[in-house]
Amino acid sequence: MDNIPEHIVWEILSRLKKTSDRNSVSLVCKRLYYLDNAQRTFVRVGCGMDPADEALTCLCTRFQNLSKVEITYSGWMSKLGKQLDDKGLLILANHCPLLCDLSLSYCTFITDVGLRYLASSSKLSSLRLNFTPRITGCGILSLVVGCKNLSSLHLIRCLNVSSVEWLEYLGKLGRLEDLSIKNCRAIGEGDLIKLGPGWQKLTRLQFEVDANYRYMKVYDRLSVDRWQKQHVPCENMLELSLVNCIISPGRGLACVLRKCKNLQKIHLDMCVGVRDFDIICLSQRSSNLKSVSLRVPSDFSLPSLVNNPLRLTDESLKALAQNCSKLESVRISFSDGEFPSSSSFTLSGILCLIQRCPVRQLALDHVYSFNDVGMEALCSLEYLESLELVRCQEISDEGLQLVSQFPRLCILRLSKCLGISDDGLKPLVGSLKLDFLAIEDCPQISERGVQRAAKSVSFRQDLSWMY
Amino acid sequence: MAKESGSSKIEMLEISNEAMAEAQSSKIEMLEINNEAMAEAQSSKTVTMKPAEAEESKTETQKITDEESKNVPIAATEEESKKLSITKVEESKNAATATTEGEKEEAKVSLKTLDGVTFEVEAWIAKEMETVQAYIDDTSADTSAAIAIPLHNVAGRELARMVEYCKEHRRASVSAGNLKEFEERFAAALNLYEMKDLIIAANYLNTKKLLESLSRCIAKAIKNKSVEFVRDYFGVTNDYTTEEEAQYRETNAWAFRNVDEDSRN
């Protein structure tokens, strides 16, 4: 190998992605050791690093070009040695000048002091905190004040982050492009107003409220009223995902929905209060929409609305069909409430949408209005490649047998479907029409019945969901 | 044995030629000496590399085909025919192919390798070799047409493989599936030493597609392999002390094993 030029060996090594392969190669000889050290930009550490500070120092000294570090203590137990604490972040700040992507998961010994050490990492552009219970809003504020290049921030189950001055600061800085806040109990919909002018730069927002704590939070009318007077310039938003949120009519997040102009992907999951008007406005302004995912809450999920249900109707689907000519991915789901929801989307509404738009992926979950007539209509969809049916109990064998006539279908997933048996799959057996078929928890379909129904078949049957 | 038979044939022909044209005997003798030297060299080469014999014969055929495309003296051509009379049919097939290719692509480039073999390749193949193309761009049209470009660091065997790769790659690139299949077949035909020699030649001539393809193949060969395997594969000796290796193994254990970079929690 001595006569192979350095840059060719570099090229060969750069094609090794797995850590175990890199580890093997670095032990071959010193030449490869130094090449690997220079090339390694990512490292993931956690349990098994003992003593933690020494090990981290050693790794940072060896891999001098580290730009991405992930520290995860998932599954940690005290017998595995002490966890990395604030001193570890000081080591990172001192030894990794190129650090731009940091992820901390289940780091229960890292506090605001650690984040303060990171404030000197001027190249940090992405931070992800997953269950770091000792970190508060003050720690995040000190970090965002120091790391002025931060463009991506993900907070997941940061239970003690309550103040949102950091959000206000990021909003004024105007560099944040990707914001994700999931299951942080103390952060509510109204807090997002703090972003202010920061909405302008934001391209991706994921906001998920912990469903178990939603009703305990006092509804902050003051902040909601403030929404109404504020300008929310979110024209650059491309991807929006809201889970378990309360969308007050004409206020708060409803303003966001209506202001988006370039949205490509939207996911509304158990969002109480979304109205047809919101979806109609959204479809009119965001005609580039490619992916729509709607999970409609049950009528019983919020008792106060029982007398005046705010439900989405076919008007929303018709508006999407009329305005969004690039829509490729559609997912419609109804919640698994105590009682099945009276479907707000009818069969004709769904068909209007999928027949007008070039839909390639269609997923229906608990949609009782979709039946064999709907399956017959799918025979004429020239773009449909992937179909997923979950708990669609009105579809029978007769409807499923039509799958062999779908022009371009190559992926089919069936889950918890009561009305389909092996007979429904018979036309597919041996035809090799499908590339992939997945059958999950369908009581009337046997493993033998799915043999040779597709080039690749996945079968699972766990019927505990029925009892 | 085949070669011996060929040699006998040549001797018989020499005798009859001697009877017919005594005046040319000295010229014939000189040619004989050269041919014998070449035959001996090739013979010894063949003996020492038996496993690659098929590849060698393929390479020789390629060389001869390329040589015949060039206007060589009639006498030399006849000598070549005599030596390889057994493969006459193959020769004519390749000659026909060369003629056809010649008709398609009028512009040709002469390349002379380290071991003295001259190749006539189409201009588009020369363009793939950026080093060759740069040389052509630096010289005037007249001189480049007349003189064979010297390649001091590239042997004939490697150049033949590179030319073959370029041709097959163009043919196979009609579909991605065919292309991948071709690359795998091409790499599977090479042993480790041939792969390394070829990648060095491709590097010298800056043939980017071939470089990428070979890098991919080598990287694939060492995936999921042990340290010892990679040492053997690259032919390197372990220059670690026992203490150093133990220390580095411990450090490696801290960076998670068998975890892909893309995998997330």
From TrEMBL, chain A:
- Please provide one cellular component term from the Gene Ontology annotations of this protein: SCF ubiquitin ligase complex
SUPFAM superfamilies the record matches: F-box domain, RNI-like
Q: Which PROSITE patterns match?
A: FBOX
The F-box domain sits at: 1-45
Please give a single GO biological process term from the UniProt record: SCF-dependent proteasomal ubiquitin-dependent protein catabolic process
Query: What InterPro entries has UniProt attached to this entry?
Result: COI1_F-box, F-box-like_dom_sf, F-box_dom, FBXL15_LRR, Leu-rich_rpt, Leu-rich_rpt_Cys-con_subtyp, LRR_dom_sf
Q: Name one Pfam family in it.
A: F-box_5
This one is known as F-box domain-containing protein
Lineage of the organism: Eukaryota, Viridiplantae, Streptophyta, Embryophyta, Tracheophyta
UniProtKB/TrEMBL annotation, chain B:
Q: For the region Disordered, what residue ranges are annotated? A: 31-107
State the SUPFAM superfamilies in the record.
POZ domain (SSF54695), Skp1 dimerisation domain-like (SSF81382)
Gene Ontology biological-process annotations: jasmonic acid mediated signaling pathway; protein ubiquitination; SCF-dependent proteasomal ubiquitin-dependent protein catabolic process
What range(s) does the SKP1 component POZ domain occupy?
108-170
Its Gene Ontology cellular component terms are: cytoplasm; nucleus
Q: Ribonucleoprotein: present as a keyword of the record?
A: no
Q: Where is the composition biased (Basic and acidic residues)?
A: 52-70, 79-93
Q: Does the keyword tRNA processing apply?
A: no
Q: Where is the SKP1 component dimerisation domain?
A: 208-255
Q: Which InterPro entries match?
A: SKP1 (IPR016897), SKP1-like (IPR001232), SKP1-like_dim_sf (IPR036296), SKP1/BTB/POZ_sf (IPR011333), Skp1_comp_dimer (IPR016072), Skp1_comp_POZ (IPR016073)
What are the alphabetically sorted keywords of the record? Answer: Ubl conjugation pathway
Which branch of life, at top level? Eukaryota
Pathway noted in the entry: Protein modification; protein ubiquitination
Q: Which family does it belong to?
A: Belongs to the SKP1 family.
Protein name (Swiss-Prot/TrEMBL): SKP1-like protein
**What is the protein's species of origin?**
Glycine max
The taxonomic lineage of its organism, from the top, reads: Eukaryota, Viridiplantae, Streptophyta, Embryophyta, Tracheophyta
